């Protein structure tokens, strides 16, 4: 079965969102709402684990949060005043319920649940070591190594064990974990993935984005700092520092594409950042045209910025079908040649005879841009100019954003002019790296003082890619004996 996800045949998806709440009588219901607000961070599966005085419950589901967690019977089963939850993409053949988070285990101190956004870059190495020590893995997720490291840790309390475990993992991680009496949030030393602290009445919340606080009427307190562990328990909110300070390298692609535009990340509105990037793009790569047209939805804020800066009218020249479901089966071979337009359609009336500037956030494989340029021409556009609000995506992400392998990235294989020819646009331009940094408030990209991870555009990976460099030891070959 094909899904409509663009990158669904390469590797395990690790795009995720997390949510946790401490001390609220409707903990599970609130977690379900929070996960619903984070649905854009992963649509393949969701889970909630809840803790009461004596209760520990967990529910996992494939599919959208609302399909399962809007049922009263389900929320009713998730008793307790603490809960954590998770949404994720997991579209490989290995998509099974056993990989759905929160991962749960009975450890020496009692029940434990863990939800992870990000990607561990030494998980395979750790896993091999742990398997040699006798650990029995239940899933194929990288996150499970943390559970085993906690089980083997010397410390007694969940917090001590968590500190020991996270000091052994490398990569990008924003974790929300729970054990009886405590909810723990941890951000990796560079803070690559987001995590914020919120407050709802007397209860505290840890979650990926502020939009998940807004949905339940919670107040934003602050971002969890890179390298910080926040512990919520009956004595309040505690801040611990398991790692040496290493600066910060927040994922710049969260601003460009991944986060919801109504979220505030590290003090910056995602929507405003996208608009500023669009303005900068117009300054760098202006062109005469009749309309600025966003590729909806992700291209909209940057297109608004481009239009405002250039003075060219913004028009919805492409309409998106919002009901393209996760499980929609793409047309069969017999009708595929018709070029079925599942997701986008040209607003022909607006486009015919016009010179249009299309604005999208990124070109990954080039499939979307090629299709959309073609669609504009078929609708009678006189000229089609493509403007991209990110630099060329030339390197895969190993820190939690779903990207195909490098050979499939258009910008890895082709120059900008070759890409223009491939998508058949009249012109193509990407925002420059310096332009992107200017839009984010710096004067240029200063390699000595970087505050973002921009590895997908530069190949400058701030966290060791241990598993990529570590060659797997071959399994011992069975010895065949002639009898
Ligand atoms: P492509 O068609 O492969 O060039 O992909 C580019 C399109 O996918 C753009 O319209 C983006 O909005 C969208 N996109 C970019 N990054 C991702 C991602 N990590 N997951 C899903 N869609 C993405």
How would you portray this structure in words?
With 483 residues, the protein is α+β, with helices and mostly antiparallel strands. The protein has two domains: 10-249, Glutamine Phosphoribosylpyrophosphate, subunit 1, domain 1, CATH 3.60.20.10; 272-442, Rossmann fold (3-Layer(aba) Sandwich). 28% of the residues lie in helices and 24% in strands. The protein is built from 18 helices and 23 strands. The strands form six sheets. The protein has a seven-stranded antiparallel sheet. Strands 5-6-7-8-12-13 form a six-stranded antiparallel sheet. Helix 13 (367-378) links the parallel strand 20 and strand 21. Helix 5 packs across helix 6 (158-166) and helix 9 (270-284) crosses helix 16. 51% of the residues are buried. The model is unreliable at 1-13 and 474-483 (pLDDT under 50). Adenosine monophosphate binds at residues 6, 257, 295, 298, 360-369, 401-403.
Walk me through the topology:
Elements: E1 16-22, H1 27-37, E2 45-51, E3 56-62, H2 65-69, H3 72-77, E4 82-88, E5 103-107, E6 110-120, H4 123-132, H5 144-152, H6 158-166, E7 171-179, E8 182-187, E9 196-200, E10 203-207, H7 211-214, E11 219-223, E12 229-233, E13 236-240, E14 250-251, H8 252-258, E15 264-265, E16 268-269, H9 270-284, E17 291-294, H10 300-310, E18 318-320, H11 333-336, E19 344-346, H12 348-351, E20 355-360, H13 367-378, E21 383-388, H14 410-413, H15 416-423, E22 427-430, H16 433-439, E23 452-453, H17 455-458, H18 466-469
Parallel strand pairs: 14-23, 17-20, 20-21, 21-22
Antiparallel strand pairs: 1-4, 1-10, 2-3, 2-4, 5-6, 6-7, 7-8, 8-12, 9-10, 9-11, 12-13, 15-16, 18-19
The structure holds adenosine monophosphate.
Adenosine monophosphate binds at residues 6, 257, 295, 298, 360-369, 401-403.
